[in-house]
F-box protein (Prunus dulcis), 247 residues
Amino acid sequence: MAPWEVLDLVCHHLDPKSLAVASCVCKSWLISMSSDHLWKPICTSNFPSLSTLKITNPTVPYRRLYVIGCSAAKRRRQTPPKPRLLLDNLIFTINIFRHNNSSSNSFCTLAKPGNELTLDPNGIFKFDIDVDNYDVFEALEDEEVVRVTWNVVLEGWRGVFGMMENCKGKGGVEGWFSEELPSPGCCCRLSAVACSGIVADLKLGFCDGRRKVKKVSVGILCVVNWRYVSVDDALRYLQHFLLPCAV
């Protein structure tokens, strides 16, 4: 049996890592170990969707497709770094306007420092902000449309990010508002879920009937599973806009 035939038989019993190491021995081994008939079953079993790319570009070797698939899988498994932005660095400001009033003066203004917010026991980015003077909502008419603005301010007024800008909704029984947030871009290392699409969420919590708002609940929702993102993911997202030099 010719040496190359022996080598070919041995190659079929090697795992991807061993094949890659053996291909570094010499040029002839590199050619043998990079053959499509070796890497096709490996690529097909591990990354079947990538294997179909051969149809669009037959010149791409299966070895290359397998390397691409491994790199992508490794990036997905990487744990994002801890955010440099802290909740204590933020101030939540919320303004509620009557929609039929052209004045820039809101009839309800809330400002809550991050260090005064109560963390959810599940670690999600959702907070309840108490409304002290909730009698002001008694002036609202049934099903009246209101406008809500929600900003996150970096301490010392070093930056501000608009979570919600003049978002319209009914100030009636439900009082629910949502607005899609901009993409953080490729430089913001969030979890895969948080990168899939997120929205700012705000709800008015009523008491004593429909007229008095006792609290305002704010948070960030993932549109994939419609669940609130974690505090760390939300801080990494806000960090991209408030601390651009830190991402």
